[in-house]
Amino acid sequence: MKRNRFLVLVMILTLLGGCTLAPEYKRPGAPVPAGWQAGAEPAKATAVADLPWRDFFPDPGLQKVIETALANNRDLRLAALNAEKARALYGVQRSELLPSVNAIGSGSLERLPADLSSTGSARTSERYDVKLGVSSWEIDFFGRIRSLKDQALEEYLATDEARRSAQILLVANVANAYLALAADRQNLKLAASTLEAHEASYRLIKKRYDVGLASELDLRQSQSQVETARGNAARYTQLVYQDQNALDLLVGSPMPPALSPADLAGITPPREIATALSSEILLRRPDVLASEHQLKAANANIGAARAAFFPRIALTTSVGTASADLSGLFKSGANTWSFVPLITLPIFDARTWSAYDVTKVQREIMVTQYEKAIQTAFREVADALAMRDTVDRQVAAQESLVEAVAETHRLSNARYTRGMDSYLGVLDAQRSLYAAQQGLISLRLSRLSNRVTLYKTLGGGSVGP
């Protein structure tokens, strides 16, 4: 009967420990406009956020490279391990709500001399105990432990969002490195073809010079163009190797040559994103969600600080058997139990008030960081959208420029061949054509990279296997 009363008391105390003193959490308002453009369409934005990364990057070669990076990248592996560590720490804190039950067996043998014995003669005493008990279990009346458990949970969730953010960043970085490698390979092809054209032109001028139809100035100017083109080819060869090394580091292993892109034209471009966007999509970015979880953790910590002003009740109890003989431990009548409640009532501790003030200030810091994370995200998306709205026009203008300069080069070369103009006009046209072609490759890379940037800044969609 006594044991039943004890179990009922424990259950009542457990049920009473279900409240917390943490303030009610309210998400702060986003300190940014509702959208980047008039007539935002939240439904479209949400669909973009839920889109798997494979749908953003339909190119088969790039998909295989990203798959390999998600499996092998060491930075991503560290982020995943940190999330696992935070989850385990949350489990430790959550376990504080439950009593720690231990089985204890003990035995003692003591000899008392005659002058200390109550019988006046020396004697030897024995005692054997077997107990099942709870040691210093705090009954969470005011939610101190629950608040700390909630704080640990939010910190774990923030770490998990950091892992997801690392995934999205890795996908974007791999895509950009892949595109940069393709662009530099295209630049290398351009430099090599330009070198061949200059060498052919130099051989032609050398023949004309040998028969007295071209001046030495024309010959040296043509030679300078050959050497410049040779230097450009060497420089882009170096850049291709460096791009390959950077991509191998991101992927976590050497990339098979079959997956290496030849040029930008051979890559299926990343998917375009809806024109009208609502800024609500920013609330789903992993870094913003991580910041909000940190804010919730600070909010829960206030509850733990408030609970420190109230009494703490701890319970130590045990049931078991005891006997003076080892053989009598489990005989009838050998039962033993103990029930030791302990209450600690804070009277004065200035540190408690200071700690409470710290938690309130920490919450304001987290609010500010959360608002800053949203503002930073809004600016990143705004910059990417501003570039998207102009890069197509820049590419179109550059394509027209390449066509115009190419025609200029053809006409200048024809006039020089007929002796109607000096070689200086051909040189200027060659330089302008090469620069225009380089600019076109750069702008096409910027257009594709801008789509990758939008993928990253809008939260990256769904990153799965």
Please provide a written account of the structure.
This protein is of the alpha+beta class and 465 residues long. Helices cover 63% and strands 11% of the residues. It contains ten helices and four strands; from the N terminus they run αααααββαααββαα. The protein has helices at 2-16, 42-50, 53-56, 60-72, 74-95, 144-210, 216-251, 286-307, 350-417, 423-457; strands at residues 101-112, 123-139, 312-323, 335-344. Strands 1-2-3-4 form a four-stranded antiparallel β-sheet. It is elongated and about 140 Å long. The model is unreliable at 38-47 (pLDDT under 50).
Features:
4-stranded antiparallel sheet, 2 domains, Outer membrane efflux proteins (OEP)
List the helices and strands and how they pair.
Layout: H1 2-16, H2 42-50, H3 53-56, H4 60-72, H5 74-95, E1 101-112, E2 123-139, H6 144-210, H7 216-251, H8 286-307, E3 312-323, E4 335-344, H9 350-417, H10 423-457
Antiparallel strand pairs: 1-2, 2-3, 3-4
Helix pairs in contact: 4-6, 5-6, 6-7, 6-8, 6-10, 8-9, 9-10
